[in-house]
Recover the amino acids of this structure.
């Protein structure tokens, strides 16, 4: 029977994480799922669970930045963000660096708590979580061996110096996108994957009959792709 652990990973704000472990006692591959802006780990964990191949562990950290600190509903009721985006500015890049450190720390804590999540993990992200997952996978191929990006864009313009190391590590990337996504247009997302592939990265892009969403068809494709990873 699967076992579920919960905890907090304090960086600047306390944020919840959920770790779902498979039955048994042996080592388990780890999937790290990053939700979109304004979402919560509890809801996204339910959504991403169908992508999990048999025998895998699942870590769903909550983003560390409360979406609204103005006295409205509590952050846990309205979700949170991974980073603060106001254009390609030093403040944005600093925020993105903090988000990367936060996820790496959450993975470390989850590994220590479970004692079973071994080897390089795999990232899966939706929307803002997909942007972060792509950056994190390319910059830290020592920790992550693959990434599934859903409704996001691979920020190759910020990763050109990191791509050779990621390519040498055997990093694999699968991008799944809604053909009529109004929030993140599919054409720039496809172009970013093509640029990464031209730089030698094992990356592919697939479109679905969907908008800005994580559909059951995408979940099924992600599950099959994850199950086929070496």
């Amino acid at each position: 029977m699967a076992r579920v652990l919960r905890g907090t990973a304090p960086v600047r704000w306390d944020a919840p994480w959920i770790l779902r472990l498979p039955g048994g006692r042996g080592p388990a591959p780890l999937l790290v799922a990053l939700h979109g802006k304004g979402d919560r780990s509890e809801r996204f964990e339910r959504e991403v669970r169908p992508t999990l191949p048999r025998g895998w562990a699942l870590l769903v950290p909550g983003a560390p930045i409360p979406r609204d600190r103005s006295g409205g509903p509590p952050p846990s009721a309205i979700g949170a963000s991974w980073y603060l985006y106001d254009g390609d500015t030093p403040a944005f890049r600093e925020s993105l660096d903090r988000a990367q450190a936060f996820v790496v720390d959450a993975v470390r804590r989850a590994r220590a708590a479970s004692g079973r999540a071994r080897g390089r993990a795999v990232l899966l992200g939706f929307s803002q979580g997909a942007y972060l997952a792509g950056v994190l996978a390319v910059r830290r191929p020592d920790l992550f061996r693959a990434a599934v990006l859903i409704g996001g864009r691979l920020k190759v313009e910020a990763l050109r110096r990191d791509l050779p190391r990621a390519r040498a590590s055997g990093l694999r990337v699968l991008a799944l996108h809604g053909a009529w996504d109004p929030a993140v247009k599919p054409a720039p997302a496809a172009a970013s994957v093509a640029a990464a592939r031209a730089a030698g990265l094992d990356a592919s892009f697939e479109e679905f009959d969907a908008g800005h969403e994580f559909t059951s068809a995408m979940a099924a494709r992600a599950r099959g792709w994850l199950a086929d990873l070496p």
Notes: The helical segments are 41-48, 75-78, 90-114, 128-139, 163-169, 186-198, 216-227.
